[in-house]
Amino acid sequence: PPTMQNALLKLWEMFEDSRTARRKDNLESSLTIHHLKEEKRNLDANYDKLVEDVHQLLSAQEDRVLDFSSLKAKEKRDERASASVVAAMKNEMEKKEAENFK
């Protein structure tokens, strides 16, 4: 009967519309997943670079602290050396003054 045919045609049309909508949703979901994976890869790369930069910064800071410590130690050695030179010069001057007063 024609009413049955019309009902079946409408049902088939509804089925096709539903299937098309599902395909469209699946495609949109796939694109969204692809973009999110791409963004995650970029974020991972940026994070890895950031970790490396922080590591280099901390290493440079540690080196600077070590350099500063060695500089301080050298400064103290230089101070002691100059103090001993000054003391030796004072002794020498005192000897010369003592010789001059004789």
Write a structural description.
This protein is mostly helical and 102 residues long. It has one helix spanning 2-101. The radius of gyration is 43 Å and the shape is rod-shaped. The model has no long low-confidence stretch (mean pLDDT 92).
> Given the C-alpha coordinates, what overall shape results?
rod-shaped
- Cα(first) to Cα(last) distance is 149 Å
What is the strand content?
A: under 5%
- The total beta strand count reads 0
Instruction: Note the main sheet.
Output: none
Which stretches of 5+ consecutive residues score pLDDT under 50?
none
Give me the number of helical elements: 1
Average pLDDT, all residues: 92
Order of helices and strands: H
State the gist of this model.
This protein is mainly alpha-helical. Helices cover 98% and strands 0% of the residues. It starts with a helix and ends with a helix.
Annotation keywords:
102 residues, mainly alpha, 1 helix, 98% helix
Write the layout of secondary structure elements.
Layout: H1 2-101
